[in-house]
């Protein structure tokens, strides 16, 4: 149990079983030196308990990096509720999870993630105030999409030294909460779209609404586009897919896009600009953290827009030192976290 904690630098790992509702949940707190840990709650099936622990641990670390680079006064955390085979009372399960969150006294603030929705957050909020994405606060996905748009502007700005996106071609993989909102924003900016989703209806909707060209899921990698925007799954940039890419840059919302460090290196060697995932997709985290902190809409929008500048500055630095962008992002996030830990120890 301690090996993955040591490997990722996780501070604490909590388990909770509620016999009445059958809740089995894990909260992983990676870092609290910069403020309370924040991050979503997954509600999915796992093939083993170890898989669930590994998922929470790995994702909590990613949230620390994301919050650090976004300049938010938070550390990273993540929780998982192991989805039972025989779910009878979802609301009661979520309330039991709310009591788990409350028991940590504010060290962890929860939010929506894969498998959870606004109505679940409303149930959790009946037991704790350490929750975001309730129906009064809203879904972070539109903010994530705005951040990705800002990131695509930075990427095209860096490659072509231009401010607009008129006539740019973007291939979007996955038209869910973020991908579809992104498609709308890009269409409104004059972008030509090619899209793919395993849910063919979503792709057809994008064709009807935005005039997008639809391709099969496995064809999206080889589309000759300026930008490939992965907005579906993690791990999609790997040794099988990278050789197929015909884009000039990868900029999308999916978490953990790179299968491993080597994939980031492969993109760099192929001269494909990569927008580090936890930087370009941080708009949603900015929204939940700042809404929770009661900041104004204006301030939140300005923060999300700042992703453009952050990414542009990172691209310039990576170019100057000839290093892959994901390594620069990791180094910067780790330096910020180390600094906060030292400050705390002093
Ligand atoms: P979602 O579940 O609403 O959408 C995912 C979409 O991808 C679905 O339409 C699904 O059918 C499609 N998809 C799945 N596999 C596919 C494949 N092989 N090819 C094509 N399409 C495929 O999820 P979401 O909330 O839109 O999030 C998308 C990604 O962005 C996820 O990786 C998520 O972790 C990440 N992310 C989301 C947010 C947010 O605010 N929602 C914030 C940060 C990161």
Write the SSE topology.
Blueprint (H helix, E strand, L loop, with lengths): L1 H7 L3 E7 L4 E7 L7 E8 L4 H21 L5 E8 L7 H14 L4 E5 L5 H7 L16 H20 L8 E5 L3 H12 L3 E5 L3 H11 L2 E2 L12 E4 L18 E2 L10 H9 L3 E2 L2 H4 L2 H10 L4 H25 L3 H21 L1
Parallel strand pairs: 3-4, 3-5, 6-7, 6-9, 7-8, 9-10, 10-11
Antiparallel strand pairs: 1-2, 2-4
Helix pairs in contact: 2-12, 3-4, 5-6, 5-10, 5-11, 6-7, 10-11
The structure holds nicotinamide-adenine-dinucleotide.
Structure description:
- The structure is a single chain.
- The chain has 346 residues and is an alpha/beta fold.
- It has two domains: 2-60 and 77-124, Leucine Dehydrogenase, chain A, domain 1 (Rossmann fold), CATH 3.40.50.10860; 141-333, Rossmann fold (3-Layer(aba) Sandwich).
- It contains twelve helices and eleven strands.
- The strands form two sheets. The protein has a six-stranded parallel sheet, sandwiched between helices. Strands 1-2-4-3-5 form a five-stranded mixed sheet, with helices on both faces.
- Strand 3 (37-44), helix 2 (49-69) and strand 4 form a beta-alpha-beta unit.
- Helix 5 (141-160) crosses helix 10 (283-292), helix 5 runs parallel beside helix 11 (297-321) and helix 6 (177-188) runs parallel beside helix 7 (200-210).
- The radius of gyration is 20 Å and the shape is globular.
- The two termini are 29 Å apart.
- 50% of the residues are buried.
- The structure holds nicotinamide-adenine-dinucleotide.
- Nicotinamide-adenine-dinucleotide (NAD) is lined by residues 140-141, 144, 173-179, 196-199, 202, 217, 231-234, 253-255, 281, 284.
